[in-house]
Design goal:
By secondary structure, this protein is mostly helical. The protein contains six helices and no strands. The relative contact order is 0.18.
């Protein structure tokens, strides 16, 4: 029965969090707050909040690290896309592990950055602002509503 409750709450809180990011993106002039990999982040933040991969520093720095790597390859490495994408993903994964900020959903960020040919502003919005928002929601929900002590 606990699994039903956990799955329901994970789904509900994912709807709320992504819903707010969607409203901010499409119903305000504040900018872009959605990043495709945030959907995967919801699985960890609400489904498995005790996981080391769901900790706030991992979520934030994992997304920032891999986005920076994607931007590095997009703007500074003049190779064909079929080389830049795997190199960027590999370097991003390696750096997350090296810096102890592994957040598996962030592994897809270099692909998003390179395929989307995003601007440098992408790091601020949606990556940094969106990450901060989902971390705040996860802390409020997990710590204050669900009464979980998960931060490490």
């Amino acid at each position: 029965m606990g699994n039903i409750k956990q799955s329901f709450l994970a789904g509900l809180f994912s709807i709320i969090t992504i819903g707010i990011l969607t409203v901010l993106t499409y119903k305000t002039e504040l900018g872009i707050f959605l990043l495709a990999s945030f959907g995967s982040s919801m699985v960890l933040l609400y489904g498995y909040p005790e996981s080391p991969f769901a900790q706030p520093k991992n979520v934030f720095f994992g997304h920032v690290t891999t986005t920076l790597v994607g931007l590095f390859f997009l703007y500074l490495i003049p190779l064909p896309i079929f080389l830049t994408i795997p190199l960027a993903v590999g370097l991003g994964v390696g750096l997350m592990i090296l810096f102890n900020v592994t957040h598996p959903p962030a592994g897809g960020n270099p692909i998003i950055v390179i395929i989307g040919s995003v601007s440098l502003d992408y790091l601020l919005s949606p990556v940094i602002t969106g990450s901060v928002i989902i971390i705040v929601f996860a802390i409020v929900i997990n710590r204050f509503i669900l009464k979980k002590n998960i931060a490490k």
